[in-house]
Description:
alpha+beta
Amino acid sequence: xxxxxMGKSLGVQPVHNASRRRLLLSGLGAxxxxxxxxxxxxxxxxxxxxxxxxLPATPRERIAGLMxxxxxxxxxxxxxxxxxxxxxxxxxxxRPLFGFVTxxxxxxxxxxxxxxxTVQKEAMVCIDIATRQPLTEWHNPYIDRTIVPLGxxxxxxxxxxxxxGSYMRSALPDDQAQRRLAELGVPQQSxxxxxxxxxxxxxxxNRFPSAIGEEEFPEAYAGEIRESVDIxxxxxxxxxxxxxxxxxxxxxxxxMADTPWPLWMMMGRRAGGTVWHGFGGKYGSxxxxxxxxxxxxxxxxxxxxxxxxxxPAEAYGTAAQMRRLRAEGRM
Length: 331
């Protein structure tokens, strides 16, 4: 196993010149804007942005660059992500359904030359698009039924990154995942730069077994396997990215995901699914996040923000919550 000495990273790096840093925040509008950028930082140095800079050229350089902008290398980082979930039904336009807030803590490790693994804990809450308050009930317009919306706390999600691409632990092996992405017309990475910024877009194919069985929840069951595609764009400053000692580069994130219908929506085998559109950024820790982001997570999952690794995630998975609601006569 190859380990990399910890260099400068978000939350622990020394600030040599305070004028070099500013808060950086992207949003979708006032309704879902973060109200406090916390420790979301990016360099605004103009003298460094004029220095010669070339985008990563080789597969190994590109995967290392992706890791530095996303999870970091050999470090722990946290991400916020929030936005809107749309319904994708055949023959109709995307339909805004509800908002979401999710936070992640990610542990990253280099396991070999050009090879990395990340483990993440994630908590997600469904919110009202206008008020940003957690939803306690929601009317599903597709089936004309009021139901209890469910967020989740994920178990340890593990992702692998190498020169061949990236994939989830429960997805197809490297070569098969690459072929599946090729079938979808989705390249795995694309890089761009401006005079001051650099960003990389990663496309990831996910494949995982259904958390429920057809006999248990016939109205919700849609098959044994669930597939999704994530499109994640990380953006940072060239002045930071060009610093070889910075193992975790400050960055923001925008996200699009094409996923199956959430199980709790009771859509069963209906055609279509959901499209997620979100934004957020990297923080030194969960404690640095904005109060407006932390509040719905803390309300839904008390204690997660203090210690996601010790939180009983399995009790807050979708299937576990559906079983509890059914036992209480609410599903």
